[in-house]
């Protein structure tokens, strides 16, 4: 996939802003020369019209014009013989569908589309379902609603922290936490007993703990027990954690158990807000950062810890159908040798990287937080970059990584879009 994207870049194709793929070929000539057929729908339903083509049905419903391939239509049949409504799993063997299949009859009744196939099987689709689940419909959908923020926006929002007992003992408290976390990419739980054991209880409230090369729950101090700058007293620039994993960890949990000294504030930056500014000001840079894969690497040989992790991917990861950003992979510490980018693209990539870095480092984008015992911070590691100012004295944190999928599952089960 990355080779295809780079080949396209080298060909010099210049897509329109926000467009990531070569244009689709034009539809074949219609089988029927007649104009599109208009059909009355229910009084409250949008107008509907359709036209048969060689390999697809062109369906206009409200403001959405869909091109629905016949194989796709047959494959997504929701009849009892094709789809198990109890398990919500497909029963139809997709590979058995004739790739040249065409419906023998098409009709619209009320808010439903009916197709009769050559073997007599009838598929019924709700027009609203088609409009929502078609490619054209998905291009208009937002997968994950968010509030992009800089320091002023977040502070003015006055997002409340969640009390530990309210969070642990009530579904309402958990839902409030998840809502804030989904919208802003960070959330706080207050009044947590400052121990690793209680931090683990709080973390497991929203997700399964992800075990990594660092273990499950970890203590974190400046003893250089691991081969990482984080295990020192030095300042840390904003970054994404575990970019050297093929899939960076989804959520990170921090709890400062003790600090006897000065400094050590935590830096938080909404990476999606910064990336959006790049998209608006220099869309060609955004495009490049979303296409060019680079390596990130973690090499460790300290004490009994010996690891060599490598992850590959672009700095910005987007859904190709609607260009929505879902993951930023930015870590200048762990970025490996750039050997995945051909010469004609390298200098352009550095310019794009410079533009993104400048946005991430703008002072008004920086939210500084002093972590203290009892206050647990949850960070969406796919979105919000974190860092740290240098500190003195003894500072001990504990924390863990969480499975992103399980947290999103908890949100969906409570009626939140995630």
Automatic annotation (TrEMBL):
Coiled-coil ranges (or none): none
GO biological process, one term: carnitine biosynthetic process
E.C. number(s) listed in UniProt: 1.14.11.8
Xref: Gene3D superfamilies: 3.30.2020.30, Clavaminate synthase-like
Gene Ontology annotations for the cellular component aspect, listed alphabetically: mitochondrial matrix
All residue ranges annotated as the TauD/TfdA-like domain in the record: 158-401
Domain Gamma-butyrobetaine hydroxylase-like N-terminal: 54-130
Gene Ontology molecular-function annotations: iron ion binding; trimethyllysine dioxygenase activity
Transmembrane segments: none
CDD domains from the UniProt entry: CAS_like (cd00250)
Keywords, comma-separated and alphabetical: Carnitine biosynthesis, Dioxygenase, Iron, Metal-binding, Mitochondrion, Oxidoreductase, Transit peptide
UniProt cross-references to InterPro entries, sorted A to Z: AlphaKG_dependent_hydroxylases, GBBH-like_N, GBBH-like_N_sf, TauD-like_sf, TauD/TfdA-like, Trimethyllysine_dOase
Cofactor: L-ascorbate; Fe(2+)
UniProt catalytic activity: N(6),N(6),N(6)-trimethyl-L-lysine + 2-oxoglutarate + O2 = (3S)-3-hydroxy-N(6),N(6),N(6)-trimethyl-L-lysine + succinate + CO2
Chief place where the protein resides: mitochondrion
Top-level lineage group: Eukaryota
Pfam families, sorted: GBBH-like_N (PF06155), TauD (PF02668)
Pathway linked to the protein: Amine and polyamine biosynthesis; carnitine biosynthesis
Protein location: Mitochondrion matrix
Quaternary assembly: Homodimer.
Function summary: Converts trimethyllysine (TML) into hydroxytrimethyllysine (HTML).
Family, per entry: Belongs to the gamma-BBH/TMLD family.
Protein name: Trimethyllysine dioxygenase, mitochondrial
């Amino acid at each position: 996939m990355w080779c295809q994207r780079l080949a396209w870049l080298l060909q010099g194709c210049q897509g329109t802003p926000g467009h990531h793929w070569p244009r689709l070929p034009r539809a074949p000539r219609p089988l029927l020369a007649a104009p599109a057929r208009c059909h009355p729908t229910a009084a409250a339903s949008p107008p509907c019209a359709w036209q048969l083509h060689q390999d697809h049905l062109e369906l206009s419903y409200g403001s959405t014009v869909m091109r629905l391939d016949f194989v796709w239509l047959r494959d997504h049949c929701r009849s009892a013989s094709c789809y198990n409504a109890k398990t919500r799993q497909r029963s139809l063997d997709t590979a058995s569908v004739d790739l040249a299949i065409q419906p023998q009859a098409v009709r619209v009744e009320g808010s439903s589309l009916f197709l009769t196939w050559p073997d007599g099987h009838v598929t019924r689709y709700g027009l609203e379902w088609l409009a929502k689940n078609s490619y054209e419909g998905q291009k208009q959908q937002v997968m994950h609603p968010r509030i992009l923020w800089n320091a002023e926006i977040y502070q003015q929002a006055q997002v409340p922290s969640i009390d530990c007992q309210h969070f642990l003992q009530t579904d309402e408290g958990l839902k409030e936490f998840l809502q804030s976390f989904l919208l802003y990419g960070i959330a706080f739980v207050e009044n947590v007993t400052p121990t690793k054991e209680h931090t683990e209880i709080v973390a497991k409230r929203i997700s399964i703990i992800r075990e990594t090369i660092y273990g499950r729950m970890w203590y974190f101090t400046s003893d250089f027990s691991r081969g990482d700058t984080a295990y020192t007293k030095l300042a840390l620039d904003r970054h994404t954690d575990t970019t050297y994993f093929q899939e960076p960890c989804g959520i990170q949990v921090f709890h400062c158990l003790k600090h006897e000294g000065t400094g050590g504030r935590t830096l938080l930056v909404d990476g999606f807000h910064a990336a959006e500014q790049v998209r608006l000001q220099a869309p060609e840079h955004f495009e490049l950062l979303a296409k060019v894969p680079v390596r990130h690497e973690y090499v460790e040989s300290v004490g009994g810890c010996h690891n060599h992790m490598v992850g590959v991917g672009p700095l910005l990861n987007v859904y190709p159908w609607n260009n929505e950003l879902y993951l930023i992979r930015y870590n200048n510490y762990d970025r490996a040798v750039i050997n995945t980018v051909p010469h004609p693209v390298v200098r352009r990539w550095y310019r794009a990287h410079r533009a993104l870095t400048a946005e991430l480092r703008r002072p008004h984008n920086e939210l500084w937080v002093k972590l203290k015992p009892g206050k647990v911070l949850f960070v969406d590691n796919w979105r919000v970059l974190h860092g740290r100012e240098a500190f003195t004295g003894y500072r001990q944190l504990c924390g863990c990584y969480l499975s992103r999928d399980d947290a999103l599952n908890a949100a969906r089960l409570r009626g939140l879009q995630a």
